[in-house]
Amino acid sequence: MQPRPRLVALVMFSVFAAACERQSPELGFWFEDVSFESPVLGRLTPTDMQNIERVARAELDAAFDGLTLRLSDSRRTRYRVRVVQEIFAPSMNRKSVVAGETRGLPGLGGLGAVNFSYFAAGAIVYAPTGATRDEIVAGIGRGLGRSAVHEFAHQLVKRVELHASRDRGSYEYDAASRVQQYYGPMHWDIAGPQLKERFGIASLTAHR
Fold it and tell me: How many CA atoms lie within 13 Å of 111's alpha carbon, on the beta-carbon side?
């Protein structure tokens, strides 16, 4: 019995994807056309948006520092997260706002998104007393970047239930409605060891 062409193609793609992953997986992260306006911040300016994206990317760089993962703005990578204006999920016959989401297939990467409006509002709500406008704008970038890290982790980490973490200062924590999402340091919890095992420098060297 001859193997089915589609099955053969899928197996070949999986083998190719695994080989690419050993080399240096690329994480595609980009902003769609988004905006925000509030009584506290007024309307975000192009300079604000540049700063927000810069801070968000810095958060991704910090989270994956020391791993064989490359961050880019490509929209054609296996692992992708985009920043969109809003994300809604059906709940009890109505639309419910969510902070982020990811869809993916084992071994085939994934596509995630984070909610710009949610994190822009959250940075205001959780801002420390006396925070300046620039500090709140930076908080938006941190909120988005840390949420993107969380969504990428869903795509990259296997055999770990991220939301089992109870560490509110970790990337894995399941709720974005907390001050740690926007202000102060953040660290890995239960997903950290597997990320190092799969994408650490030592693991890459071992495959060569």
Answer: 4
- Looking at the DSSP assignment, which residues form a beta bridge with residue 102? 112
* Per-residue pLDDT tens over the stretch 33-85: 999 999 999 999 999 999 999 999 999 999 999 999 999 999 999 999 999 99
Tally of CB atoms within 10 A around 85:
14
| Burial annotation 170-194 (CB, 10 A radius, 16+ → b, else e) | bbbbeebeeebbbbeebebbbbbeb
Which two structure tokens, joined as six digits, stand for 168? 């509110």
Tokens, residue 128: 């420390």
Whole-angstrom distance, CA of residue 59 vs CA of residue 1: 52
Q: What are phi and psi of 62, to 5 degrees?
A: -65, -40
DSSP-H helix ranges across the chain = 5-23, 46-63, 116-125, 133-156, 192-199, 201-206
Q: Are 182 and 55 in contact (CB under 8 A)?
A: no
Task: Identify whether the C-beta of residue 144 lies closer than 8 Å to the C-beta of residue 56.
Answer: yes
Prediction pTM value: 0.84
Q: How far is CA 90 from CA 1, 95, 151, in A?
A: 45, 5, 19
H or E element, residue 115: strand 110-115
What's at 34, amino acid-wise? Answer: V
